[in-house]
Amino acid sequence: MESQLKRFTFLQLSDVHLDSRFLSGRLGLSHSQRYERNNEMLLSLYRALEEGARRRVDAIFIPGDLFDADTVTGPTINYLIESFSRLGDIPVVIAPGNRDYYSFASPYNPKVLQARGLPPWPDNVIVFDADAFQTIRHPLREDVCFIGRAFQKNEVEPRRLLNRPVALRTGAPLNFFVHHGFLEGYAGPDAEIADKYSAPFSVEELESQAFTYAALGHCHEFAEVYSSRGKLIGAYGGSFVGRSFEEAGPRLALFGTVIVGPSRIPECTVEPYEFDNRRIYVAGVDVSGLSEEVMAEEIGLAIQEQGARPGEDIIYLHMEGSYPPEADKSSVVERFRDNFFHVRVADHTRPDYLSERFDERTTEGKFIEAMLEYKRRVEKGRAEAGLLDSNAAPDSVSGGTAEDALYYGLDALRRQKVDVRNVD
Prior knowledge:
Elements: E1 7-12, H1 31-55, E2 59-62, H2 74-85, E3 92-94, H3 110-115, E4 125-127, E5 134-137, E6 144-148, E7 174-180, H4 203-207, E8 213-217, E9 223-226, E10 232-236, E11 253-260, E12 266-273, E13 280-286, H5 292-305, E14 314-323, H6 329-337, E15 342-351, H7 363-385, H8 399-415
Parallel strand pairs: 1-2, 2-3, 3-4, 6-7, 7-8, 8-10, 13-14, 14-15
Antiparallel strand pairs: 1-11, 5-6, 9-10, 11-12
């Protein structure tokens, strides 16, 4: 028993969202790119599990959202079953989250697998299947227990589940909490998403529990959780692969180690590890007054500063400003599309048409005058109606919409083509 108390290692990964539709974050991948990314997600997971097996970790923790329950396919579930089977006796501990929730129709349910002609989950896979917290002992370590629960539906969980002590009743000195929920104070880019505040808890509530370590999922950025004494008591690995522009930069899994010294007080550490070969980067550039060549240089520098790797990464390019009408901005952007796996453009630029003098007698001049007058009437009418918020009345025309119409019309008159902005 003494040797068992010395060391415990684990691999933690979550929020993989296998078979996700990639609809979030305005990623805008083509069908073939989505297919490729889904395959890459599976390969990344394979590499993580392979590395965990190579290191002979004592457990693998998956605190939720391994797949998207509404879209996951049979081949993906079969792939997971085969991958987990290859781990031998290493326990895979899964706490289903809001996306891969446990229900009568869930692939986690053995009866569903049987009905679909799929093999059962291997014996080393432990899936929490109840709404209440469950405690399960490590199959090979009497000194280790796992505590967790399962979301039962894809809904926000309003309850504070840790505001009272979680009964362990294990007698084990090492108790690992595998949990899908929101830590108050988390400040990642996804913190403000509407359904993120689910199964909320505070650092104080987590610290009050008798857990050795909390493997946390649901929040998509890597974040360590420390007690009031500066001791690591839990961590989010963040999303395992990048699926949206809110998940920029390296995506991570965690390798953790718990060491129990002479004091019998466990000390936890985690090591972030990247398995996805592709990253998403966000770059911004102001093109005001720039010629084509200078514009291309500025875009290239903005992407380079983010550390993006040509041929591999996905770029979200935010462009703003007014550029000379003679500059062909679209051709500049096209130069970069072939250099990366995917480039998505949020175009908030405009040709600087109105800086030039225009002849009011021409068709173009009359069009400009008419549209500017229309914009003034629209803005005045909205102000008088108290519609200051552009989103307040989605069926009404705003000043911004009128201005868009002006510039699109000038595009058509001058260039015989229209560059759609604010979309791609």
